[in-house]
């Protein structure tokens, strides 16, 4: 099932779209409908995210989304992008990533946004009983020679 949670595309005088319109409650409404209609199935959220121009979502908003999603059986959550990246229509001016990327210094360490911290918490809570080597997961740059 594909759920699109925005309602229009508009452009400013320079031909750029404004901040994304989104309705986070809409996704929960759909997930709760599936829970009621289909007996609480496993739900995998894929390619979820919104573009931001002014920064990241408030941490409290991310936290409340997480608390709401506990009401349904979300087994997997795949974000739109791990780090900010180039968007064809907007270049580097809008950001979708869970971590900030300094495009003037692309080798710098990445800093998690509030959404990245939410995602980290979601993964920690949903993978408690799974065999993962979390210590090998890091946003820190490693010695490039050791990766060769």
Strands, total number:
5
Question: How many structural domains can be distinguished in the coordinates?
Answer: 1
| Gyration radius, rounded | 17 Å
| Approximate helicity band | 25-40%
Q: Please tell me the overall pLDDT.
A: 70
Shape label: globular
Number of helices: 4
Strand-residue fraction?
5-15%
Name the poorly predicted regions.
141-148
Decide which structural class fits the backbone.
Answer: alpha/beta
**What topology, given as strand order, has the largest sheet?**
3-4-5
Alpha-carbon distance between the two ends: 40 Å
Oligomer: single chain
Order of helices and strands: HEHEEEEHH
Largest sheet: 3 strands, mixed
Question: How would you explain this protein's 3D organization?
Answer:
Strands 3-4-5 form a 3-stranded mixed beta sheet. It has one domain. With 148 residues, the protein is α/β, with parallel strands linked by helices. Strand 1, helix 2 and strand 2 form a beta-alpha-beta unit. Helix 2 runs parallel beside helix 3. Helix content is 29%, strand content 14%. The longest helix has 15 residues. The C terminus is likely disordered. GO terms for molecular function: beta-glucosidase activity. Keywords: Hydrolase. It comes from Arabidopsis suecica. Pfam families: Glyco_hydro_1. This is Glycoside hydrolase superfamily.
